[in-house]
Amino acid sequence: MHGCGNDYIYVDVSRHPIADPSAVSVLWSDRHKGIGSDGLVLIDKSTVADADYSMRIFNADGSEAMMCGNASRCIGKYLFERGLTTKKEIRLQTLSGIKTLLLHEKDGIVHSVTVDMLEPVFEDASLFNPNMAEKIQSPLSNWRGDGGEACFVSMGNPHYVIFTDDVEQVGVMGPVLENHPAFPQRCNIEFAHVMDDGSIRTRVWERGSGITMACGTGACATAVAAAVTGRRGRQSRIVMDGGALEIEWRESDNHVYMTGPAEFVFDGVAEVELGMRS
Fold first, then answer.
1. Does the active-site annotation cover 74?
2. Which of 4, 68, 187, 220 is flagged as catalytic?
3. Cα angle for residues 8, 224, 166 (degrees, 5° grid)
4. Taking the CB of the first residue and of the last residue of the chain, which one, N or C, has fewer CB atoms within 10 A?
C-alpha cells in the first residue's frame, strides 16, 4: 500500500507471524532484489485496552521507527475494506502513543483518512541537543536555508525542518544531517519552501530510508514549523513528491490532524530466507 507514494509492505502478523521483522524488512524492501518498499509494517491486535489494533514499522535499513502517518492511514483503509472492522473511528497503538484514525468512506471505499497525531514536541533531550548544533561547525550549524531558519519538531519521531528556496538540496544534505551528533537517535530531515499559493513544497529525507515520496509525520512537522516561524497559520497544504496532505494544528487541543489518501497496490505471497511464508 502507499500514501502519497510512501510505500510499505503490510503484514497481518496476528495471522502470519514474522520472527525477525528487522531482517525481513531489509530483504523485502530492496527495490532490485526484493519486493521494493520504504519498509515493513506489522498489523496486530492491540496489547492495551484503549486501542483497537497495533502497528510496528521497520525502515528499509531494518531500524524500527516510532510512527508513520502515511502507514497509519493505510492501516485504517486495510482494516475497513478487508472486513476486519466496521468502525470508522479506529484507535491504533503505536510506539509513540495511541493515534485515532477517522475514516472518510463512501460505498465501502475509504477515500481518505484523518489521523490525530497528538501534540508536537519542541524540546526532547533524547532526540535533539541544540547546544551541540550550535557548537559544532558543520552543515547543521551553518545550514539555515536561504535567509530562512530551521526548527526541530517531534511528532513521536524527530524532525528537523529547514526552510529554503532550494528543496533539492535534500539529497546532498539529508544523509549528513540525519547522522549529525545533535540528533542522538538520528533524525528525519525536511527541506521546505512556502509557495506563492500558500502551499508548502517539501522534500523529505527519512531516517533509515533516505528520500521518500512522502512522510506523514514530516508533513505535520513542516506545518507546525511553518506556523511557529510565522510563515503560515494553523492550516497548511504540504506538497511532497508523491502528493499533498492537509494538516491542521488545532488550537482547541493543540493536536495536529493529518488528512490524506491511502491506496492498495497489490497482494501477494512472499518467501523469506528462513523458510517462513508470510
1. no
2. 68
3. 75
4. C
